[in-house]
Amino acid sequence: MTLTSTASLHASSGAEAAQDKLPKRAALVSFVGSMLEYYDFFIYGTAAALIFPKVFFANVDPSTATLLALLSFGIGYIARPVGAVILGHFGDRIGRKTVLLFTLVLMGGSTLAIGLLPDAKAIGNAAPIILTLLRLLQGLSAAGEQSGANSLTLEHSANSNRAFFTSWTLSGTQAGAILATLVFIPVSSLPEEQLLSWGWRIPFLLSFFVLIVAYLVRRTMPETPVFEDIKDKAKVARFPVVALLRDYWSDVLRVIVCALIATVSTMTAVFALGYATSKFGVARPTMLWAGVLGNVTALITQPLWALLADRIGRKPVFIGGVLGCAVLVFPYFMLVTSGNTPAIFAAAMILSGIIYAAPNAIWPSFYAEMFEARVRYSGTAIGTQLGFLAAGFTPLVSASLVGEGPNGWIPVAIFVACCCVISAASAATARETHTVDIADLGKRRA
């Protein structure tokens, strides 16, 4: 063998080895990026439940202040469909990677600005107005984050493990929730005066470091071969949203309804947090640690659910988890309002960490595989973000539905359970895609 042929062989082997590592690298990049970006997004939810009613809405009575703070949380979800259209367009036009870098900068900058925002005592009504505008920017960013990361990872994965690798995007989201809660636990233990004056700002100001780390991790990831292929063949849609609504309108509608399952997440992370602490005297650290336990459990169970979905299909795992949530939301409320710490921890671990983890792990591949590559970013972004509107306003709706007395949570549980059942029914109408080659996904409509 000549030196030239030997060198060529080594170069070829090196290229193949690098190619083999791309799915793992894509999953890691999506995990870290989502973790750090959703750290920013989740600290707002915690602050809205515990801090903002007293800091930015102090000029009204406490009940109204709580509703306004939860409304500001939900407003972030109003911006998400708009962001999905805009960022989905560019994600399908210029590539996944460029848009994902933009979402990081937008999220990090808006979160840092919240941490620097003067409160209502300092600038009056301007404070909640500016807070709401910054929350809108967070929503715009979040709209493109998960869908872009899902598309990036899915398109770098082999056919046999797409659900597994793509699930790490949502595991990153869980890790972001853990990180946000761990930062808030010591902050929430500060004396009330210090907490409301400067302590609550710490998690938001830390977003600067979050932004730097996430950007450095994500910027080195190459564009997906699937997108490069349609770009080289000049098959990129000029207006992806038009092509999407023309050819995939039923799949977009299906994703919207399936995404109602996210009401479980905001019910547990935001509404139940404020409800248990204000109405039943549960200590703030107890509820925050329960959330950490649920998310840590999900970090373990979500990859396992995804592995199962790669073997038996997306639909059985997704539907089973969704219906499980519909049933378990009732004992969840019974336990978190009991005041018993082990019971509260068990409720969070079972509902959030095990059962909800099933659809949460599967939807990144389940939704994305409904669309072909040229509209995948737009399809998953628009579908999920319209569906997530219900999740965004779940804390507000729940606060409006909740009754008096120890069983006042029952209307809230019924509302969430109904959303779960509707989500499962929509998923049942989808086609199974776990055995379909990635090049053929969505092609039945082409």
Summarize the model shown:
The chain is mostly helical and 446 residues long.
Instruction: State the fourth-level CATH superfamily of the largest domain.
Output: MFS general substrate transporter like domains
The geometry reads as globular
Mean pLDDT: 86
Sheet with the most strands, sense and barrel status? none
The N- to C-terminal Cα distance equals 48 Å
Descriptive account of the structure:
- The chain crosses the membrane at residues 41-60, 67-87, 99-117, 163-186, 198-217, 252-275, 287-308, 317-337, 343-363, 375-397, 409-428.
- Residues 26-435 form the Major facilitator superfamily (MFS) profile domain.
- Keywords: Cell membrane, Membrane, Transmembrane, Transmembrane helix, Transport.
- With 446 residues, the chain is mostly helical.
- The protein folds into two domains: 20-232, MFS general substrate transporter like domains (Growth Hormone, Chain: A), CATH 1.20.1250; 240-429, Growth Hormone, Chain: A (Up-down Bundle), CATH 1.20.1250.
- It contains 21 helices and no strands.
- It has helices at residues 3-50, 52-55, 62-93, 96-116, 120-123, 126-156, 162-188, 192-199, 201-205, 207-218, 225-232, 240-247, 249-258, 263-279, 284-312, 314-336, 341-355, 357-368, 373-392, 394-401, 410-428.
- The longest helix has 48 residues, at 3-50.
- It is globular.
